[in-house]
């Protein structure tokens, strides 16, 4: 008995992120003067919807239900 499983390539890599409506805006929690970029909901794009150009980091709406911290926010900088 042959039971080949052929994966559907269109189904393979793209996580099912909830995509914000175009026109939504968010600011970096570490630096409110930085506006996050909302990426296009494009089948060829496998990343998350939000991009922080300052922290070089992606976020999904799911991430935003938790405490968001841009990873390179510089708040850990110590005075000499
Ligand atoms: Zn940021």
Gyration radius, in Å: 17 Å
Each distinct ligand: zinc ion
**What structural class do helix, strand and pairing data support?**
little secondary structure
Could you name the ranges where pLDDT drops below 50 across 5 or more consecutive residues? 76-80
Helix content: under 10%
Mean pLDDT: 80
Strand numbers in spatial order across the main sheet: 1-2-3
Number of strands: 3
Task: Report, as a whole number of angstroms, the end-to-end distance.
Answer: 71 Å
Q: What shape does the CA trace take?
A: elongated
Query: How much β-strand is present in the residues?
Result: 5-15%
What is the N-to-C succession of helices and strands?
EEEH
Tell me about the biggest sheet? 3 strands, antiparallel
Number of helices: 1
Summed up:
The protein has 80 residues and is low in regular secondary structure.
Can you put this structure into words, describing what you see?
The protein has 80 residues and is largely without helices or strands. It contains one helix and three strands; from the N terminus they run E-E-E-H. Strands 1-2-3 form a three-stranded antiparallel sheet. A hairpin with a 4-residue loop joins strand 2 (50-52) and strand 3. It has a domain at 37-77. Bound molecules: zinc ion. The site of zinc ion (ZN) has 7 residues, from loops.
């Amino acid at each position: 008995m042959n039971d080949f499983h052929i994966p559907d390539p269109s189904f393979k890599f793209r996580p099912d992120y909830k995509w914000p409506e175009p026109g939504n805006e968010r600011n970096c929690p570490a630096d409110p003067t930085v506006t996050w970029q909302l990426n296009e909901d494009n089948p060829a794009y496998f990343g998350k919807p939000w991009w922080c150009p300052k922290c070089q980091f992606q976020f999904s709406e799911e991430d935003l239900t938790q405490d968001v911290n841009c990873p390179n926010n510089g708040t850990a900088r110590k005075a000499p």
